[in-house]
Amino acid sequence: MSTQHPSPRVPETLFGEPEPEARWRARFSAARVSLPGWAIDAPDASLYVSNASGVWEIYAWDRAEGTHRQVTDRPNGTMHGALSPDGEWIWWFDDTDGDEFGTWVREPFSGGAAPAPALPDVPAGYPAGLEIGHRLCAVGVSTDDGSALYTHRDGRTERFYASEHDAEVAALSRDERLVAIGHSEHGDSRHPALRVLACDGFGVVAEKWDGEGKGLSALAFSPRKGDPRLLVQHERRDREELLIWDVEADTETELDIDLPGELTGDWYPDAEALLIAQFDKGRTRLYRYDLGTRALTSLDSRPGYVGGAAVRPDGAVEYSWSNAAEPPLVRVRDSDGQDRVLITPPGERAPGSRPVTDEFVPGPGGDVHALVSTPQDGARPLPTVFLLHGGPHAADEDRFSAYRAVWLDAGFAVVEVNYRGSTGYGSAWRDAIEGRPGLTELEDVAAVHDWAVESGLSDPARCVVAGASWGGYLTLLALGTQPQRWAAGVAGVPVADYVAAYADEMEPLRAFDRALFGGAPSDVPEVYEKCSPITYVDEVRAPVLVLAGDNDPRCPIRQIENYLDRLAQRGADYAFYRYDAGHGSLVVAETVKQVAIEVDFARRAVGLP
């Protein structure tokens, strides 16, 4: 019989006054929409996700008619959808209660029919890429046996690739003659190689691998039929940059774009230019790059974070934008330069919040970039929450966060740390955690914590560490390896017992872990032991709150229970909130409940009223 772990308090309200209470809840519940995608040959048919119903679901938008329709309606929400090129069909991924294991289904864009299996001969699994053509579809599936890639045409499904290693369908040429796949046959899923196959017979057209520690990502084939050029992201000079690869001639052109930071991009519809997104120090800028003249033109996007961007057939650029103070909007920059809001979600817009400032703190591996925000009122030194992002290959940005905002409302300073392992600071910074994950990142967190205390920002007796996913893992590891620094910890969907997590997690994450740790637990047991929070559970002194989903394939529930059982044996001060979903919840009310539990737990731990 499993241990009955103590449940946290679920507060009815966080704040005594109605106005601040309504404000923080409105930031989560206000309707938002993602950047819409559209059908290649029917651009009036668009698709986006929204929380307007109270659950994140897929919506169809007929731009010609000006109508919006909710497509999916599932208890735990739906996030992954795509349109057929002709705009006639909506595809969406059908998993079970957020477990990420399932199949693609499809239904008419106009509605009126129940969803049906899109590719009935493709087995269920974790998604590993999808490309929908007029005559051919390519789809990837990952299971415990590895990766399998399939095509479907003329009513026939064929498996064209299988490997024990991680692989995905990456891109399909506009004329559907060529398919690009990313693979890790060399044994490192974090730095994939590329292969292009002919769809007629699946012979190899071209291969590209830049060698150990240098990944390649296929972004998109040229939108022009018959054009075999593939836009590729590479990291040959310690940062993510772009090249164009003519896969049939097997020639390439590296794009010399003189911008700091890291770059990604997509094609303009005429294939004569690229839309460039530059990520630098937590902020995004958009540019147009002319492939003929090599001219780089700023699109004058405001400083902040661009969550996605794409070019319409008429040259207009649609993009989602926010900064720390201003909630997200989907905007469009027309070809004449006018910039306006594209979609206004129903209801009131979310209330704003406070801006962030930048700090660059000397650390053992170089300067650590931290984003710092402070409450409107409060005398320093302040109670401070150090929010550690997930990933680990992700980053905190100058973007709107309802989660950051509620901590500010609760009286905390908020420090977000782009530790080694974060993206946007070069390949060496991202890969510095190899062979010693977790402990390396926490050296950077410690340097920023020292700065925050020494600068007078943070009260050393009232510092909280918090995060979800990889951030939850770092939180538990911090509580055990740096017990003197933390007054409390809040760990959402964490890795807590790494060996047990490896045994139970989805295969793509096992492949990731093997590349990050240097092998499986049987290969390098000492690394997994040294880097696992359960190794240090007896050193935990601060109160700890753990939140986890029953159906999480990334940070499975068993390994979390192992850690909690050890806390229980010690009589430690902890609480456990368990919910029926996967790696987080897409239900707004559930998210609000969890946030209230987290902030209330931390406030009581540091003595805030």
TrEMBL record:
InterPro entries: 6-blade_b-propeller_TolB-like (IPR011042), AB_hydrolase_fold (IPR029058), Peptidase_S9_cat (IPR001375). Keywords: Hydrolase. Signal peptide: none annotated. One of its GO terms (biological process) is proteolysis. GO terms for molecular function: serine-type endopeptidase activity. PANTHER family: DIPEPTIDYL PEPTIDASE FAMILY MEMBER 6, SERINE PEPTIDASE S9 FAMILY MEMBER. This is Prolyl oligopeptidase family protein. It comes from Saccharomonospora cyanea NA-134.
